[in-house]
Amino acid sequence: MADKVRVRVDHRELALTNLGKVLYPRAGFTKAEVIDYYTRVAPYMLPHIQGRPLTVKRYPEGVDGPFFFEKNRPPHTPSWVRTVRLPAPGSTKGRDTIDYAIVDDLPTLVYFAGLAALEFHTPMWRVDDQGRPLDPDLMVFDLDPGPPATIAECCRVALRLREALREDGLEGCPKTSGNKGMQVYVPWAGRSESPSGYAKALAQRLEKERPGEIVSQMAKKLRPGKVFIDWSQNNPAKTTIAPYSLRANPTPTVSTPLTWEEVGNARPEELVFTAGDVLARVERFGDLMATPERCGGEEGP
């Protein structure tokens, strides 16, 4: 039987198991350290995921073992975890609905970390107090480099994207994906225009402007050496890695908010952040994605 430890998180009691299991073998990073990371980063992460239906990527045996995506909340989920039932059109498992968990508080975040849910993915929209989907409050551009392009090329594209957004009176906040690419988030609340339509049109315009550098189509044959601006992440059915989420890499890298100054000046190796790096950053600078002004560079690293 797995070792079980009962802990109190705020006003909830949780049973955590296998705390000594190494989930990142190359780094010797254990489940206890995963839970500790999410506990300490929670004040900065929770505002970005509260109210958003959750999809997790779970690695019960660690990053070198099998994994699975989970949208439907596990059957053993405590009754106090907020759940919303939403339609599941086109479900690959033949479901009509999915019971999504909503991570509104620290106990829920710790509960999922205790399930070896290393990655947290959320959509660009939230639900209201009755669990009804609201209009998108964010637009995202997912920048994916096609080898031999790297995050350095993503940074150049992100800077041009920032200029184009500003021409329309919009501000974006950049973050690393925690893998090879990056995203730019744009506040969208209160706008009547479809974020998906706007993002597609802008991606196509930038592709025409820089055809040797940018591609707006998903076909992999078009992407070598270019940066794919994935506008389709704004589809309501899709999710994007959440700010401050760990990634399942050999070391515990994190999807990390950046300043635009870092995007313009940093070398690629300087844009890889582990859990420890991120905890040091938030302790010093707070949440760079709290407002578009924070990621402008004036108060950041």
Gross morphology is: globular
Enter the CATH topology name of the largest domain.
Alpha-Beta Plaits
Unreliable sequence segments: none
Biggest sheet statistics? 5 strands, mixed
The gyration radius over C-alpha positions equals 19 Å
What is the correct CATH architecture of the largest domain? 2-Layer Sandwich
SSE ordering: EEEEHEEEEHEEHEEHEEEHH
Q: What's the β-strand tally? A: 15
The computed structural class is: alpha+beta
Q: Assign the CATH class of the largest domain.
A: Alpha Beta
The percent range for helix content is: 25-40%
The domain tally reads 2
What value does the average pLDDT take?
A: 94
CA(first)-CA(last) distance: 46 Å
Helical region count? 6
Strand arrangement, major sheet: 11-12-10-14-13
Question: Could you please describe the fold and organization of this structure?
Answer:
This protein is α+β, with helices and mostly antiparallel strands. It folds into two domains: 4-134, DNA primase, PRIM domain; 135-238 and 254-296, Alpha-Beta Plaits. The protein has six helices and 15 strands. The protein has helices at 31-49, 106-113, 151-167, 195-209, 260-265, 275-285; strands spanning 4-9, 12-17, 22-24, 29-30, 55-58, 68-70, 83-87, 97-101, 117-122, 138-145, 173-176, 182-187, 214-215, 227-230, 240-241. β11 and β12 form a beta hairpin. α1 packs across α2 (106-113) and α1 crosses α6 (275-285). It is globular and about 55 Å long. Pfam families: LigD_Prim-Pol (PF21686).
